[in-house]
Design goal:
heterodimer; A: mainly alpha; two-stranded antiparallel sheet; 27 helices; 72% helix; globular; B: mainly alpha
């Protein structure tokens, strides 16, 4: 099989699995559905590995599969760009997806929508692969919206729950706000470049940089800045950046496997991937980079704060994901695209691990998700415990773990960046280390250590991940093989992937062909000079500020939740206003609900009643009908049938005509 | 013989077929009428296929031309022909007729033959509209096509049909009369010709063009419908039976937009330019204003009707930004809307047949009892919200690209449909399809049967096919659109 067919196999194998499981789910049965989809994703992963090796050997590819549309000199094609950046994403997506597929066998074992679920996650894998493999903006947008669709379907997977179908509508609409900007960016590119093909657009980059656009009369802006900011608004939606982050925590209404796959490891990183892909454009605009940097920094720090007070195990991990996405965005803003992708990759492994472990805990605790009613699970769930520890250490950036290499590199890159806003961003990411360590180990200690509180869980069906809520008082148990095996397989890269990959990905020339960094952004070049080996970097890490902050965070969590469990309550009391602010998530949801949702309904009702019904129908349509009736009633008066009236009218008429005739000039 | 008169066959085959259906039909045994109507519709679609297959995409001139004298005293002739624009609508119309016949199969129990015949006649007449190159012939078809629609709404419509028909009448009357005056004026100016192509080349001063443009505008804007002459549409849809709504949305709304392409733009190109600002403004109002109005509708048919108005706003926007991608996008949007809005009305019809309610509040959790139906409904809703890989995306995407090229802010307001369209469509889906079973009526729903699966499935294939591979659609129209844009750009002054 030649490479071209292999490129096609990667997205089409999961698609075939999705179609079979979705359309013929009844025929092939439950095991048929999981086998066919797992096979499809496994084929995609194997093919991605082969393509990865081919690309390593120097065979990049850029070509089209078919012409989708041609209009007005714009040729829009479906095609693939296979380069180092693509292959990293392909491997991450297909590997995590494969793990999640296997895990799902156990997690969804009792669910009536088993086949449907497998169909959806395979369809997601197809969409995500189409997104990362695209060689043009149209296909990118296709993948972008398609992953959004599957995310919508999966958040609302348990469609009888009001919270789930509220969350999925919210997710779709907030993403659409981002897509609105994204589409305008694509429109500007099409208008000024005459093409939507990546390579051709990037070639026009320098020309774009010299153009300006007058959005408001008398205030010309750099065209490339407008384009990049529009594109980034799309990324803010998909990658849940402030203030479009509001949908991600609610997306936890979906089953846990998709929280791992879609809302942690892959889909939410699409925005990060997209900006990296567009590095030739973003590098041309200091303003856009600065915007990216500040948005990322706000997200990284302020979403982390929210993670500190959550009690739902999935929501803790969700806020942690928001914060980590902020870190990646900060790296983008600092022009350290390869670092962002590096963190994307390590994060995909350890965050998928943490989510799946959370799911395992949820099964083990009989569908209780509240960490206040866990504790001491270490001895009941040894595999879940150990892999969670690995994931948590990776997340807080403990030296030698995967997250250490990527997160420390981000911090360093920001420290060296001169993009406006870098000072604030540096503060945010460094403070974020402490926050991350605190909430991660708060959860870890509450779940796995301390006294066992699983028998204290109050009956509250709203917090359950699944319908069945029997046997609360039974002791927690370790999950079955299909559940813990993916945890182990994800724990391995969470341990070693950073150590192995930092050199080629950041300091080698792995991304040289795919990512462009302007000569004025030399942070990474500086870091390369200081870098000697992965081992030395980790050793050095023990003496650095981030490590000290991380350890302090862990220690504080230990103090609060193991040593002196009475402290958090009294602190909460002292800082009640702050706690209320955090508990209400800075009031974003309430504001959006009131202003945007309520405002739109009010406006719609106003336009409908006042515009359509009163003005147009009332005055114009029915009014003209009434006018006709009124005029005819008036005219009727003159058709009295009385001769003298007609005669009188005639005389008047003749008189008027004569007068006019005599006064003619 | 068929090969030389394909257009005539596409017009008269359904009409004469309808007469046979009427002759065969009896109230006691409606089966033969149904089968015969389906056969006629299929035959009617088959004769249009060679129009596409044999169409020369390189030519911008009229093809499959048929000419015969008709009323010689006034130089009115039976002149037919299609270009790359009109040929698509003849195909769409003949196709939708099949779907409509299928949709009315079991639902209509009274006067079945008359129902089927009305749709067949309407199909033939509308093919006549798209194929006419003689203005009087066009006018006759244009006005005649209203009669079957009146009958369909009047005979098989809802309780408030008199008001709806009255409103429809009032709106169209004014427009039609002004158009007739415009046609007579052009007849006199051109030295006694009703040939539309002759009028295209007829030099006219700007103020004459503007008056002509406005006269046509009233006629066509009502049909589209454009804001603010749109309020008849929600009422007409609500009262019409399912088949009537489908034809109304899929084909009849396209007649107005087609009128702009055939009359306003080529006959009054300079006026079109001069008034394009107003046309763009009205189009954007349709997208934004109507988008908000659609959001608060409580009746599903009204919601889809308002959504149609917003989507047709994209069509008129695409026409008046005068670039190729915008105009082709508008045409693609017209065809796509034929599939998507048609399918949405079919879906509402499927639910209405079971529940006898169109109110959103009467539903909730339909997916629990009708999972197959729900899958189709969500697919069409996504197409309505312009999701890529569905036909709904293609036209919107092209028009937005064209609009941004024309002016950033035009594109900005057009692109709001991404949010508004998703909001009103998916909010309805949430309340109707998802959630727990809302009441006993929903609990007793039965999923779609084989016939319903067939017509929804065919529509789904169209929606997906056009979304994944729109190339064949735009390929046909390139030459004609290019010709039209050049003609409009050159002007007549």
């Amino acid at each position: 099989m030649d490479m071209h067919s292999l490129y096609l196999v990667v997205p089409l194998a999961p698609l075939a699995g999705a179609l079979l499981a979705g359309l013929f789910g009844k025929t092939i049965g439950r095991s048929g559905a999981h086998w066919v989809t797992i096979l499809g994703v496994a084929v995609a992963f194997a093919a991605s590995l082969a393509i990865f090796q081919d690309v390593q050997a120097g065979h990049s590819y850029n070509g089209s599969v078919y012409t989708w549309l041609e209009s007005g000199g714009l040729k829009l094609e479906v095609g693939f760009l296979i380069d180092p950046l693509t292959t990293v994403m392909m491997l991450v997506v297909s590997f995590v997806s494969l793990m999640v597929h296997i895990y799902t066998i156990g997690y969804m074992a009792e669910d009536p929508g088993y086949q449907r679920f497998f169909s959806y996650i395979s369809l997601f894998t197809f969409s995500m692969l189409m997104l990362v493999m695209a060689n043009n903006f149209v296909q990118l947008f296709f993948g972008w919206e398609a992953v959004g669709l599957v995310s919508y379907l999966l958040i609302g997977f348990w469609y009888t729950r009001p919270t789930a179908i509220h969350a999925n509508l919210k997710a779709f609409l907030v993403n659409r706000v981002g897509d609105f900007g994204f589409l305008l960016g694509i429109g500007l590119i099409a208008a000024y470049c005459g093409s939507l093909d990546y390579v051709q657009v990037f070639a026009k980059g320098p020309q774009l940089a010299s153009m300006s656009i007058e959005l408001f009369a008398g205030a010309p802006w750099m065209l490339v800045s407008v384009i990049c900011i529009c594109l980034f608004i799309g990324a803010m939606g998909k990658s849940a950046q402030f203030p479009l982050h509001v949908w991600l925590p609610d997306s936890m209404e979906g089953p846990t496997p998709i929280s791992a796959l879609i809302h942690a490891a892959t889909m939410v990183t699409a925005g990060i991937f997209m900006v990296s892909r567009m590095s030739p454009l973003f590098e041309l605009s200091e303003a856009a980079l600065s915007f990216v940097l500040v948005i990322g920094a706000i997200t990284a720090l302020f979403m982390g704060f929210l993670g500190m007070i959550q009690n739902d195990i999935k929501r803790v991990v969700a806020y942690s994901t928001l914060s980590q996405l902020g870190y990646m965005t900060v790296a983008l803003g600092a022009s350290a695209y390869s670092v962002a992708i590096f963190h994307l990759m390590t994060h995909a492994f350890f965050k998928a691990l943490l989510f799946l472990a959370a799911g395992s805990v949820i099964i083990g605790c009989h569908h209780n998700q509240d960490i206040r009613y866990m504790g001491g699970l270490k001895k009941h769930m040894p595999v879940t415990w150990l892999t969670s520890l690995v994931g948590s250490l990776a997340l807080i950036g403990f030296p030698f773990f995967a997250g250490f290499y990527s997160k420390d590199s981000i911090i360093e890159a920001v420290a060296l960046s001169h993009t406006p806003g870098a000072g604030f961003a540096y503060f945010a990411v460094i403070a974020g280390v402490f926050v991350t360590a605190f909430y991660s180990f708060r959860m870890y200690f509450l779940v796995f250590h301390g006294e066992e509180r699983y028998d204290q869980v109050p009956h509250d069906p709203a917090h359950h991940d699944q319908h069945h809520d029997a046997h609360h008082v039974q002791a927690p148990h370790e999950s079955p093989l299909v559940v813990w095996l993916p945890l182990v397989l994800l724990a391995i890269p969470s341990l070693v992937i950073g150590y192995l990959c930092i050199k080629p990905m950041l300091y080698g020339d792995y991304f040289a062909a795919a990512i462009v960094v302007g000569p004025e952004h030399h942070a990474l070049a500086h870091m390369k000079e200081e870098f000697h080996s992965s081992f030395l970097m980790a050793l050095h890490g023990f003496s650095q500020l981030p490590f000290i902050l991380a350890i302090s965070g862990v220690a504080l969590a230990w103090l609060f939740y193991l040593k002196r469990p009475d402290l958090p309550a009294s602190i909460k009391k002292t800082f009640q206003p702050i706690y209320t602010l955090l508990d209400n998530k800075y009031y974003f949801d309430k504001f959006n609900e009131w202003f945007f949702a309520g405002g739109a309904r009010l406006l719609g009702r106003g336009l409908w009643k006042a515009g359509d019904q009163v003005l147009i129908d009332g005055v114009l349509v029915n009014g003209s009908a009434k006018l006709v009736g009124w005029v005819s009633a008036l005219v009727r008066l003159y058709q009295s049938g009385q001769i003298y009236r007609y005669a009188f009218s005639m005389i008047i008429g003749v008189f008027v005509l004569l007068t006019l005739w005599m006064h003619r000039v | 013989m068929i090969a030389a008169h394909l257009l005539s066959f596409s017009i008269w085959l359904p009409i004469f077929g309808a007469l046979v259906v009427l002759a065969v039909g009896s109230d006691k045994n409606p089966a033969p009428a149904r089968v015969l109507a389906l056969l006629v519709a299929l035959a009617g679609f088959l004769v249009t296929l060679p129009l596409y297959a044999g169409f020369d995409v390189a030519k911008s001139s009229m093809q499959f031309v048929e000419a015969a004298p008709w009323i010689q005293n006034y130089n009115i002739s039976y002149l037919l022909g299609v270009d790359g624009i009109s040929v698509l609508f003849i195909l769409l119309n003949s196709f939708i007729t099949i779907v409509v016949i299928l949709a009315g199969w079991r639902v209509i129990e009274k006067r079945v033959a008359q129902y089927m015949a009305a749709f067949l006649i309407m199909s033939g007449l509308m093919n006549g509209i798209f194929a006419s190159l003689d203005a009087m012939l066009f006018y006759v078809f244009f006005e005649a096509s209203l009669i079957p629609m009146y009958i369909i709404i009047g005979a098989w419509g809802g309780p408030n049909r008199v008001y709806a028909a009255f409103k429809f009448f009032l709106y169209t009357l004014a427009g039609s009369l002004l158009m007739l005056i415009a046609l007579l004026y052009l007849f006199l100016q051109s030295g006694g010709s009703f040939n539309i192509l002759v009028w295209h080349a007829l030099p006219l001063p700007l103020n004459a063009q503007i008056l002509l443009f406005l006269a046509f505008l009233v006629a066509f804007a009502v049909k589209v419908p454009m804001w603010p002459v749109h309020t008849w549409l929600p009422d007409a849809h609500v009262e019409a039976p399912t088949g009537g709504s489908v034809v109304l949305a899929s084909i009849m709304l396209k007649l107005g937009a087609y009128g702009f392409i055939r009359f306003s733009l080529p006959i009054a190109p300079d006026a079109s330019h001069a008034l394009s600002g107003m046309m763009i403004a009205l189009s954007l109002i349709a997208v934004v204003y109507i988008g908000f109005v659609a959001l608060v509708q409580t009746d599903m048919k009204k919601l889809i009707a308002y959504s149609s108005i917003a989507h047709m706003g994209f069509v008129t926007l695409g026409f008046f930004i005068f670039n190729q991608i915008g105009m082709e996008g508008a045409l693609v949007q017209m065809i796509s809307h034929g599939f998507v809005a048609g399918a949405m009305f079919l879906c509402v019809g499927v639910m209405y047949d079971r529940m006898h309610s169109r109110m959103i509040a009467d539903y909730g959790g339909v997916v629990n009892t009708m999972p197959k139906f729900a899958a189709f409904f969500v697919l069409f809703a996504m197409a309505n919200a312009g999701l890529p890989a569905t036909s709904g995306f293609v036209g919107e995407f092209m028009v937005v690209l064209g609009a941004v090229k024309f002016n950033f802010w035009t594109g900005f307001f057009a692109a709001t449909t991404l949010i508004l369209g998703a909001a009103y469509t998916l909010w309805m889906v949430k309340r109707v399809v998802f959630g727990a079973v809302a009441n006993d009526h929903v609990a007793q729903l039965t999923d779609i049967n084989g016939r319903e699966f067939l017509f929804l499935g065919v529509m789904a294939l169209c929606v997906l096919g056009m979304g994944l591979y729109p190339f064949p659609f735009t390929d046909v129209m390139h030459a004609s659109v290019d010709h039209l844009l050049k003609h409009v750009a050159a002007g007549k002054l």
